Structure formats: C-alpha cells, structure tokens
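Try it yourself: sequence plus 4'-deoxy-4'-aminopyridoxal-5'-phosphate, in.
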Amino acid sequence: MIRKSVQNLTPYTPGEQPKLAKLIKLNTNENAYPPSPKVGEALSQMDFERLRLYPDPLCIRIRELIATEFGCSIDNIFVGNGSDEVLSLATEAFVENDGTIGFFNPSYSLYPVLTDIRDAKQVEFPLPETSEELAQLSKTNKLPDLFFLTNPNAPTSTIFSLEAIEEFCKNTDSVVIVDEAYGDFASQKSAATLIDKYPNLMVCRTLSKSYSLAGIRLGYLIGNIELIEALYKIKDSYNVNMLTQVAAIAALEDPEWMKENCKRICATRDRIKQELRNRGWFVAESQTNFLWAKPPAPFTAPELRDALRAEGIIIRYFSQEQTKDFIRITIGTDPQMDEMLEVIDNYKKYFFYVHKIIKD
Ligand code: PMP
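Structure, out:
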C-alpha cells in the first residue's frame, strides 16, 4: 500500500524543539531576537471575522513588497509555506520522473530527502572549497536537471562569490536554485540581481531567519516568469494561510527592523568567532547567523555537544563523515553566547582536572 520509495525513505530530521523553557537554544538557526513589533500589532488588530474566508491564493501584497525589495516584477515571485515547501514544489515542476537532482555535500540535509520523495536520482558533488572551483564545475560536468546551491552554505557558513555563481549558471541549461536562506546575514548582494541574465537561475529566500519568523512559515522563489508560472500551476490553491500573510506583510513593510537584528547578530557572530579562535578552535568564516566550529584536540565535537547539553545549551551536531568533527552553533544573544563560552571554559578545566587525578 505504501510506495517503495516512501517505505525506504530516511526522513529529514529537524533540529529538536525542546519543551523545557530554560534551555539556551542554539540548534536550529532561528533568530535570537523577536520580529518587528508591527507583526504583533497587525495580528492583534486583525478582524478575526475574516478567518471565515480563504486567504489570497496569489499572495499579491507579499509579492509586491518582495518585488520592491529586489527590483523585479511580482510575476517573478512565487510564495510558499516556508522555503521547504517551495523547494519541494520545484522538484515536482522541474524534474521528469526519471530525472536527476544535484547538491553539494555537505549542504542542507533536506535536499536528498526531497530527491528521494520525488523518486529522482541523487547526484552529489563534494562542496567546492573556493569560488574558483565552483565557477569551473559546470564547465567540466553535466549538471543534473535541478541543482540546489546553498549560498551562504549550511552547515559550513561559507559563501561563494556572485561571479562564481554566474559562471556556474552560464554553462548549463539545468535549473539552478540558489538557496539564500541566510542571505540577509551576508555582506554580498543577492543572486536575485542575476535572474534577468540567466533564465535557469532561481533564488530561494525565507522569512524564517533574518525576519525572525520561523513560526509563520513563509518562503519564496524569485526567477524567470515561465518557471514561476509552472509552480503556480501545481501548488495547493491556498498554500499560505491568512494569519501568515498578515504577519508577513507587516514584517516586509518594516525591513529596517530586520536589518538592525541582522547587524546585531553579525556583530555577536564575529566576536564569538574570535573568542573561539583564541581558545584554539577552528571556526570557518561565517556569512550566516551560525558558526561552523571544530574544537581543538583532545576535545571532540560530540563531547562538546554533550558538555553543553548537560548545562542546558543545545547546538547541532551532524554525525556524517564530512561533518562529524564540527558543531554548528546558532548565534544567540550576547549573554547567551557568553554563557556558552563559560561552559566551554569550565568543561576544559574539569577535563584536565579529571585527567590529572587519573594520572596521579
Ligand atoms: N534552506 C536552508 C539552507 C535552510 O537551512 C533552511 C532552514 N532549515 C531552509 C531552507 C528552510 O527554511 P524555511 O523555514 O523557510 O522552510
């Protein structure tokens, strides 16, 4: 009764959403700060009688606001129930039944799951180490029908230049979706500036991170009109609910609040990156709201995860070969991050104290 590919599917594992209120939650790259107060005002002033009705199926006002931000037409924008839904619909619209879907390893661990759900063939490339390497890739390889390119990348927090993305898209007819879930934390422009030049390029964005609205589920794709129309043909009629639309419109009308939040997070990120490096950690350059960090020997990543957890701080750990030596730390508020450093320092003291006793 159940399709074979679903029987065999390893589902996506979302980061834990613990019920204990006191935990410091640095595990799912949510924003440490609240959304614009205008979101709360809009929701509380909403006429609840309107909930009798279906929401706008085309999210026109949201698309107008996004179009203004990116200087494109509303016809270039598709809006969905979080970027996860948008990415999933892309696998239905742009990949034939015997088709192929590609991505880098490591990158967002949902892509292989979406590929398996679609019954398509996974084509995995090692994550290029430099922008120059990315630029060469589509010259020397035939790309799969659809390629997910996370930029900045998750979980490694690093970024490829726009020039490299342009080269990557130029040499292929495949649909390339640049997933910019963390784009507002980066110091370079969005690849959405390139959509007029490359009809196969689409950019995916979300209100979950920079706009502090993971709870409402609102994501969108920017791209050429034909590809956008294809997505509108296959989506659920009312894929974005009315409460989400009200909240998203209020947030998008107040981009300054989002930018201030991003600024604060980037300042904390750069400070903590340096603090960890001073303690001998390897920390990748980050253009996101998280750090990709490897503790110095003799400490290991799973040990640090457990030590932090024991003190009520949760971070994300991926046990696969390419990622097993690192932990991913979402940037929290300054006091939260200071507490994390204190736990790390105390753990080090405790570790050497115990080893000294064992030796003696
Ligand atoms: N893309 C990437 C790279 C992500 O890390 C995430 C968050 N897990 C998403 C997309 C999904 O975002 P959304 O909340 O909009 O579904």
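One thing you can check immediately is this: Residues 82-84, 108, 150, 154, 179, 181, 206, 208, 214, 219 surround 4'-deoxy-4'-aminopyridoxal-5'-phosphate (CB under 6 Å).
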